Amino acid sequence: MRLLFIGLPLLELLGLMILTDRIGLPATLLEILLSCALGIFLIRRSGRSIRDLMQRFQKAPPNSLWSIIRPLQGILGGILMCLPGLLSDLIGLYLAISAGSKDDAGPGGPGRGSPGPDPQSPNIIEGEFVQEDLERLN
Asked: pLDDT tens digits for 68-105?
């Protein structure tokens, strides 16, 4: 655990020093400001998702654990994007991208395992129905 608290900031500092050497100080500062702005945007968007999620939970229980984890994943990604450093930006960006925009989509795809957009909605199976006359068949 000590390695995490000591090693991660040192890796972040080393990454920023290398980036500054490669692209210059103004571009590095711009990268830090842009990643912080993106992190704040992600936190606000995920905060709205959590508020909507809590309002839906008051009406009906959650249909999956994934619908709870996804907005929290977006907030954690936004927090990591606000921290200066390349490693935290990459991890935060991965979390934000994997969080996606649909709250009830599980790891297997959108809407997997849920009956519809609302848990109270009926199950609808799409297809064609043809009624044939029994007398004609015999």
From this structure: 777 788 889 999 999 999 999 999 999 888 876 554 44
- Domain borders along the chain are 47-101
Q: What is the pTM of this model?
A: 0.63
Pairs from 47-54 (Cβ < 8 Å, separation ≥ 24) = 47/75, 49/74, 49/103, 50/75, 52/103, 53/103
Rounded to the nearest 10 degrees, what angle do helices 66-82 and 25-59 cross at?
160
